[in-house]
Amino acid sequence: xxxxxxxxxxxxxxxxxxxxxxxxxxxxxxxxxxxxxxxxxxxxxxxxxxxxxxxxxxxxxxxxxxxxxxxxxxxxxxxxxxxxxxxxxxxxxxxxxxxxxxxxxxxxxxxxxxxx
Amino acid sequence: xxxxxxxxxxxxxxxxxxxxxxxxxxxxxxxxxxxxxxxxxxxxxxxxxxxxxxxxxxxxxxxxxxxxxxxxxxxxxxxxxxxxxxxxxxxxxxxxxxxxxxxxxxxxxxxx
Lengths: 116, 112
Known about the structure:
The complex is a heterodimer. By secondary structure, chain A is an all-beta fold.
């Protein structure tokens, strides 16, 4: 079973639609992340949840709204998106312990989002 | 802040050759480094990592070298195979943080 699963794999939506991206991790990790990946740019961190608490919000527009109901599930709710929001949205998870930070993130295969 | 960059956007090699992908980072407080491989249509896949108390670490056909003096790390792939064709990128993490900074990728193209 894949460690980090994202659905849907592809999503085409109009600017006025509301949709949600889902991520589920089966690794027993306690931290989850949303990243945006655009062509020829480094990964952009959007949100971080550690023990279900949001700890980072990197100036992401309010049209993106994360939700983390438990340590295994992460959602990204989308509303009134713009064409420049078209990108690959990646979810990742990692195991973070107090004072021990040397653990790699594990990624899902992403949702390819296209805004019409 | 931290910036992480790769030296070449594209690297072409012949099958069987050794490949070297280089990465530079800016923050001397970075103490943990990770290499990822991303194939077309897939998410980044963890390859190998290295902590700042080491200067070399080996995996299966891959070696990561870390030079803290010049803030440079490299990924070496031995006997490159067509299945190694992908985008490779490095990430650096500052001590005390679990949030890495990612570099842009280097696209490795392996010619049969």
